[in-house]
Amino acid sequence: MTTAIEVRGLRKDFPVRDKGLFAPRTLKRAVDGLDLDIPRGRVTGLLGLNGAGKTTTIKILATLLRPSAGTVRVDGLDAVGDARAVRRRINLIAGGERMVYTRMTGRENLWYFGQLYDVPKAELRRRTGELLDLVGLSDAADTMVERYSRGMTQRLAIARGLINRPDYLLLDEPTLGLDAPIARDLRRVVADLAAHDGTGVLLTSHYLAEVEELCGHVYVISAGRHLAQGSPAALKAATGSHRTVRLTVTDPTERTRAAADAFGATRENLPDGGELITLRHPDDMAGPLTAAVVEAGGSIGGLEIAEASLEDAILTLAERGEAGLTTHGPARGGSADTTSATTGSRTEARSPDRTTAGTAGTEGTAGTVQTVVDAADTAGAHGGGR
Ligand SMILES: Nc1ncnc2c1ncn2[C@@H]1O[C@H](COP(=O)(O)OP(=O)(O)OP(=O)(O)O)[C@@H](O)[C@H]1O
C-alpha cells in the first residue's frame, strides 16, 4: 500500500451563472487535471496566484468537496468512496475560515472534535490541555468562542486541526492573521510533525518565507493546472532567480581579479580604488568566493548577499504558463534537483497580485527545466460539484 496522498487527473467544475438569475448555467473549471503526490514525513507546498485552484484542491483532499473527475487516494483509500476512513487520517487548518463552534468554549470545541475523530478519552483530555497551551489559549479555555478575538479563534482552529494527530495535515494559509510568535510556534509544530511523527503536510501560504522554511517540494499551479514542481531553489534557478553576492575588495590585484573571474563574477572599479565583485548564482557562493579572493591576497571591505525571491519565480512561472509559452532547455547549476514545468495552452486573464508559495527546503542547486505545452483541453462540461 502506498503511504501518500496521490492525486491523479483531478478536476473540479463549479456551475456558475454569469449574468442574472435566468441566464443558463455554465461550468467554471477551478481545477484542471492536477497530479500531486503528498508523501508522509514531508511538507509539500502548493503555490499559485489568486484563483489558481489551491483552496479547491485542498477542500477536495479534505473530502469537503467532491471532484468532478480524477482520483484522490489517501494511503490507497479513495477520498470519495472511502471518505469516512479518509477523514480519520487527515485534518485541515484553513486560515480565515471559521472552523470552530462559537457557542462552545475552546475546550468544549476540542473535546467535541476529538470525539468526532474517536480520540480515546484519556488521550483527548491530555491533548486538549497540551494543544490549548500550544496555541496560547489555556487562560481562555473555558470562555465561549464568540468572545474570542479573530486571532484567538484562528489559534483554536489550529488546535482543532491537530486534535486527531492526523497522518496528513492540510494547511490552507494557516498563519493568516496570526501574531508572529504564534505563527512561528505553528511552523515549529508543523516541521516537527513532519520530521518526527512522519505526518504528510500540504501547505499553501502567501508567506513565501514560511514556504521556503518548511517545504521540501512545491507544486506551482495556475488556472487549476500544473505549471512546475521542484524545490524552491530549483524553481528560482529555473526562472533565472539567483542569489546575488556583492563583495568589496579594498586592494584589488591581478590575482584577486583572476579569482573573481574564475567564478564568472563581474567587476567594477570603485571611486576609492577598491573593486566591487558581483556574482549571481543559484547556490550560496558567498563563502567560496570570499575564500578565493582572500586566498589571492585580497582584503574584504564588505559583503552583501541578496536572496533570490521565490515570489519572482512564481510570478514568472505563472506568466509563462498563462502566455502558453514554451521553453526547453537546461537550467544553470547543479543537477541534484529537477524542476519540471508544464504550461497549459489555456490562457486566462489574471492579475498577478498575490503569490502563494509552497516549497521545498534549501537545496542549493539548479535543476533541469522541461516545459511542455499541453494540448488544448477542449473537453466539455464535467459533472458539477457540490
Ligand atoms: N463555489 C464556487 N463556485 C464557482 N467558482 C468557484 C467556487 N469556488 C472557487 N471558484 C473559482 O475557482 C477558481 C479557483 O478558486 P480557489 O479558491 O480554489 O483558488 P485559490 O488558488 O485558493 O485562490 P486564492 O489564492 O485567492 O485563495 C477561482 O476562479 C474561483 O473563483
From TrEMBL:
Stored InterPro entries: AAA+_ATPase, ABC_transporter-like_ATP-bd, ABC_transporter_ATP-binding, P-loop_NTPase
A GO term from the CC aspect: plasma membrane
Subcellular location: Cell membrane
UniProt cross-references to PROSITE patterns, sorted A to Z: ABC_TRANSPORTER_2
Start and end residues of each ABC transporter domain: 16-248
Top-level taxon in the UniProt lineage: Bacteria
Membrane topology: Peripheral membrane protein
Main localization, broad class: membrane
Keywords for this protein: Antibiotic resistance, ATP-binding, Nucleotide-binding, Transport
A GO biological-process term: response to antibiotic
One Pfam family recorded for the sequence: ABC_tran
Region feature Disordered, mapped onto this chain: 324-372
Positions of transmembrane segments: none
Any GO molecular function: ATP binding
Biased composition (Low complexity): 333-346, 355-372
Entry similarity comment: Belongs to the ABC transporter superfamily.
Protein name: ABC transporter domain-containing protein
Source lineage: Bacteria, Bacillati, Actinomycetota, Actinomycetes, Kitasatosporales
